[in-house]
Amino acid sequence: MHAVGGAGPRMPCRAHAGSGFCRADADRRACRQPWPCLSALAERLFFGTMNKTGARRAAGKAMPEGECLLQIGAVICDIDGTLLPAGRSAVSARTRLTLLALKSAGVRVALATGRAPQVALAAAEKIPYDALVCAQGAAVLEKGGKPRALHALDEQQMYALVDFCENGEWPLNFVFDEGYFAYVEYERMLRGLPENDMQRPWLFDGEDQNRHLAAMPYGACAFLPESAVHAFGQKYGHLGLCFIPFAPGKWDIYPAGVDKAAAVQGILQGWGLSWQQAAAIGDGAGDVCLLKRADLSAAMEGGSPKAIAAARYTAPPAEEDGAAQFLSQYILRALREEEDGAHHGV
Predict the structure, then answer these.
(1) Which of 16-25, 85-94, 195-204, 315-324 has the lowest mean pLDDT?
(2) 156: confidence class by pLDDT, cuts 50, 70, 90
(3) 37, 92, 179, 326: least buried by Cβ within 10 Å?
(4) What is the phi/psi pair of residue 19, to 5°?
(5) Torsion over CA: 207, 145, 216, 237 (sign)
(6) pLDDT tens-place string over residues 53-112
């Protein structure tokens, strides 16, 4: 990112989800409902066909202990490149069943994406979740799309980006609820997106530059070299904008202080949880803030070097359902073993 300018409570049981936590073994066994009834397919997906290599330990980072894993009360997942491989419009059955099993066991699920709100809702339609972080943290939606927290660019920030990109002829779009409006060089931006890029169906010709009159954008996306990012900082550093790379020469742009971790912080507080009770999975530079804060974290194989360096583990790639493998190996398995132990009076 370029800036321009202890032990917590135990896992919530299903009966007490949303209202409290079971601290004592006796209480936990008394109130925990049986492990959710999973189909034979789900059982095989979770425990029978796990990639033998599992999640790779990051160099020099300690392995988690079972007791720690039982305290995980929330999972935060990026969407594109993490739950959803490039070119696919829906998550796999294995990923969906894994998230359903977590929720059935009382674990909250938050999705955190750089997508615009309506674009994120379309992607999340068949993904089990409790909260949705959009536009790199600028918008937080409850299940069903009700806004919970919104942050927008101000006029000075927006006009500075337009002037700078027009002068340099750099493609620029702004992130609104319904998608991305290219205010500068729409055709070049469209040509610069791969055919399978999720933005393409949601990118609109906004060169009349009037969409912001209805509501200010959450952020922006620009195609420009790193030298231009530094030049923007020299001229407009006082505006406090951050440029987050998501591909070579391509940047998400948001106000300083707006990121996925800041948005998730509010969500966790609302759930009565801390970062010590959270697991995070991501693949890009925008996920680094999450991976550094969460007690248990994994970056996807082939993801951003910064994300991999920030995470505790490297999970298999999204094409191999790496997120589902990681969650199964480090959270669902621990919960299953504890459940089996409770049933046997351990």
Answers:
(1) 16-25
(2) very high
(3) 37
(4) -120, -15
(5) negative
(6) 455 554 444 445 444 555 899 999 999 999 999 888 899 999 999 999 999 989 999 999
Residue 264 lies in a domain: no
Q: Are residues 245 and 295 in the same domain?
A: no
Under 8 Å between Cβ of 153 and 219: yes
**Domain for residue 266, yes or no?**
no
Please state, in angstroms and as integers, the Cα–Cα distance from residue 133 to each residue in 44, 188, 240, 333, following that order.
Answer: 31, 29, 21, 27
Q: Which amino acid is at 177?
A: D
Q: For position 181, which CATH number holds? A: 3.30.1240.10
Instruction: Give the integer Cα–Cα distance in Å for 70 and 39.
Output: 23
With b for 16 or more beta-carbon neighbours within 10 A and e for fewer, the 295-312 pattern comes to bbbbbbbebbebbbebbb
Say if 65 falls within a structural domain.
yes
Q: pLDDT category, 13, cuts 50, 70, 90?
A: very low
Residues 98 and 15 in one domain: yes
Taken as a whole, the chain contains a residue count of 346
Percent of the chain with pLDDT over 90: 69
Both 213 and 74 in one domain: the answer is no
The number of distinct structural domains making up the chain is: 2
- Structural domain boundaries enclosing 228: 155-255
Q: Contacts from 312-315 at CB under 8 Å and sequence distance 24+?
A: 312/58, 312/61, 312/64, 313/55, 313/56, 313/57, 313/58, 313/61, 314/55, 314/56, 314/58, 315/55, 315/56, 315/281
Q: Do residues 183 and 119 both lie within one domain?
A: no
pLDDT in tens, 35-57: 444 434 444 454 444 443 455 55
